[in-house]
Amino acid sequence: MSGILDSVDQRTQLVGQNRFELLLFRLGRHQLFAINVFKVKEVLKLPRLNAIPNSHPVVIGVANMRGQTVPVIDLSAAIGMRPTEITDTAHMIVTEYNGTVQGFLVSDVERILNLDWSDVMPPPVTAGRAHYLTAITRLEDNRLVEIVDVEKVLAEVSPYTTEITPGLIEDEVLAIAQGCEVMVVDDSQTARDQVHNTLSNLGIQIYEAVNGTDALQQLRAFAEHTEGSLSDRFLMLITDAEMPEMDGYRLTTEIRRDEQLKDLYIVLHTSLSGSFNHAMVEKVGCNDFLPKFESDRLATLVKDRIKVVYNL
C-alpha cells in the first residue's frame, strides 16, 4: 500500500467539483466496502495488537504507532457481520474522525476509486445493512460498493452526548432560540441525530435533508412560500461535506447562485480530516466551519449567530 496516500494536495483539488475518492476494502472474501480517502491517515498491514481489558466487544486491541496508542475496531463485527479472520491479507486502516484517531481491521485493501458524487446513491431504505451505510455505488464491472457510516460505528463504540453544559446559553439567547429554524444536511442518520438532539435542547425547529439535492429541493420549496429572503427565516444551514448525489461544497455553490437563497448563513460541519476544510469554506462561500461533533461547540456557534442576528 506504499504511496497510496501520498498526494493529499492533489486530492484536495477534487473538492468543490462534486468529486471525491474512496478507499475500497473487503470485509470477508468478496464484499466490497469503502470510506472517503480524506478520512484516512494511513493504511498498513495489521500490526501486533495488545488487548484492552473490559473494552467494547468490537475493539480487538490497541496498536502502537510511533509512540501513539491507536484503538483497533473490527469493522466487520461492528456493522453486524462475522468477525474478521486474521490472515496475511488483513490490514489496518487508520482514520481520523472528530479529532480522534482509530484503526479499522479489514480483510484486505483493494484500491482508491475516483468518483463523482452524482454516481453515488443513498442505500435502499429496506436494505439489510443500510443502517450502517451512507451510500452505495457500482464499479465498472458492476460490483456493488457500500460506503460505511463510520459515525454510527464510532457512536456505538463510544457513545456521544448531546447535552449542553448548564449556563452555556444565556436566558435571553435561549428565549430567542426557541423561535428559530435550522436546516441540517447530512447523509448519516447518526450525524443528523447528533445535531438535531443538541439543538432541540434549545427549542430550535430542525428540518433535515439527506444530501445536497434533497436540501436544495426543500429550500426552493420553502422559498416559494416565504416572503423576502429565506435567510430571514432560517438562522443557518448546517451541511456535511461528503454526501451522495450532491456534496456540501456544491450545495453551497448552488445556494449562492440562487437569488432567493444566496444570503443563507451556511456552516460546513464535517469530520473530514485536514486544514484544507478552512480553505474550502472560503473558496465555496460558506460562512463558518465546525468539526464534528461537540455539543457545546455547536451550541456556542448557534448562540453567537443569534447574538449577531438580533444585535444582543
Q: Overall mean pLDDT score?
A: 87
* Helix-strand string: HEEEEEHEEEEEHHEHEHEHEHEH
| Strand order across the largest sheet | 8-1-2-10-9
Number of helices: 9
Low-confidence stretches: 1-12
N-C termini distance:
54 Å
Approximate shape:
globular
Main structural class? alpha/beta
Helix content: 25-40%
Oligomer state of the chains in this structure: single chain
Estimated share of beta-strand residues: 25-35%
Tally of DSSP β-strands: 15
Main β-sheet description? 5 strands, mixed
Radius of gyration based on Cα positions: 20 Å
In short:
With 312 residues, this protein is an alpha/beta fold. It contains 9 helices and 15 strands. A hairpin with a 2-residue loop joins strand 6 (91-97) and strand 7.
Q: Which characteristics define this entry?
A:
alpha/beta; 5-stranded mixed β-sheet; 9 helices; 15 strands; 27% helix; disordered N terminus
What would you note in describing this structure?
It is a single chain. The chain is built from 9 helices and 15 strands. By secondary structure, the chain is an alpha/beta fold. The strands form 3 sheets. Strands 8-1-2-10-9 form a 5-stranded mixed sheet, with no helix packed on it. Strands 3-6-7-5-4 form a 5-stranded mixed sheet. Helix 4 crosses helix 9 and helix 6 packs parallel to helix 7. It is globular, with a radius of gyration of 20 Å. It starts with 7 loop residues before the first helix and ends with a helix.
